[in-house]
Amino acid sequence: MQRKKITFTVLAAVVGLGTLLSACGNQEDVKQTASSSPQSESSKFANKIKISMFNQGTFNAAAPIPPREEDIQRQMLEKAMNIDLDMTIPQAGQATTKLNTLIAGGDIPDLLFLKSRSDLAQYYDQGVLADLTPYLDQFPELKKRFAQDSWDATSYQGKTIGIPGYDNVNGISRSFFIRNDWLKKLGMKVPTTPDELFEVMKAFTEKDPDGNGKNDTYGFIGGMNKEGNLQTYGFDSLMWMFGVNPPSAIDIKDNKPVFLFIDPKMKEALGYINKMMTAKVVDPDWVTMNTPDLLDQKLFKGKVGFMIRDARRLEPDYQQKMKEIGGEVPEWIVIPPMKGPYGDQIVERKSFQVNSWAISKKADKDKIIRILSMLEYMFTDKEAYPNFAYGIKGIHWDVVDGKIKNKTSELSKDMKEKYLWVDHYRMPRRGDDAEYFSFQNPKTAEAFANNQQYVGLTLAGNLLTADPSDSLAADRTRFINESLVKFMSGKDPLTNWDAFLKTLDTKFDMQKYKDTAVKQFKEAGLIK
């Protein structure tokens, strides 16, 4: 089904992930000055204009803006676009107050970075922002840079009122970690299905894989946050093997919403986890694992054979913690997610993008075109890319053996602190650019790249906004979360599944929630 523009007030959309930077990887050299491509020549713009930028998209609001003569990125932008750039970096936590003060005083910045979809819509309603629809066809490279879902995030009332901000990062935080040294010792292969995974976890628990003669190892450890939510703590990743997930996982199939947290397949997923619990392959400490740090401690101690953790745990700093805490550096490897009974193979779903660039309604046509040209240059010029994504050539990156090498991780602490201000310009970095992260362990970059193929599409449910008249919303969500935990832990037998569904309908007015979803999906053009 072809998607229409999404136009209801508060809405998020998927960040389109680009391909890894390759075009500039084989260059002999990468200039620090403006690109020589036709679109970025300063001669294209005869008159110099001043552009004010309100940049709350910086990755380091505390870093002071350097003088122009030291600011390589600013020099590039000013030369390429023939502009005088005046950038404001609001202090962390004060951006909204600062921006509202400027707007109230009539001093609206020409270019604004906004961090929420609701702000974008609100400021447009207030007459602060320009409609960019008439101009975008002049910038084909900028339009190609982001996927359609990202552009949908900037669509409001049938108009495009912003430019997608920066890519979110997917395919790294939900990596499937397994002890390869334990697999080898037990003569087992990397699991590829839920059944194979169960057998591996059972062996890790029962067959003394660390060889110390003690019954002190487990196949898996997960947890839930302090609010009792299972998302992001490992168990939810196991549920994806069955194509389901806790709230607010709502898909659309056959022109109807599918509430994955009450789908029949959720019962199967819970049954699988309960089977794990019954077989005692889950570390019993899972009930206390309510922060990522606690799960990391389990990783470092080396007594669990399978976990869902961030691929960056393969980096040297974390490897050293394993040595210090567990006495060894286990052979952890990142494997593909298991392929479930319905063909699902997912590490995570793509994140929704809420950030965007917007342009003041006070800007005239020439200024709007100049700003859009600058954004197109920042986000699409291949020679300029490393200067924005990585930093200053010769300091943060260089060309090594014909390829760009990010050297940020090699800098001393003093050098890193000296150049913190380069974080003001990193927005064009791609969400799947392994070089940007400057991984020190090649296995981390490999895992990150491999995981990209298992990042699933975003779910329509993330587009829904809260219904203010739904007074049972919070209680309903709490009941769902508590019920899922009871089912998977065995505190409530799965024979009570139908009773759970009935309680949702009778006590928590599930039908109202369903009706709201249908209404908003229709407004968004996602269902007919």
UniProtKB/TrEMBL annotation:
Keywords annotated in UniProt: Cell membrane, Lipoprotein, Membrane, Palmitate, Signal
The organism of origin for this protein: Paenibacillus oryzisoli
Domain of life (superkingdom): Bacteria
Name listed for the protein in its UniProt record: ABC transporter substrate-binding protein
InterPro entries xref list: Bact_solute-bd_prot1, SBP
Organism placement in taxonomy: Bacteria, Bacillati, Bacillota, Bacilli, Bacillales
Signal peptide extent: 1-23
Pfam families: SBP_bac_1 (PF01547)
Keyword Lipoprotein attributed: yes
Keyword Signal among UniProt keywords: yes
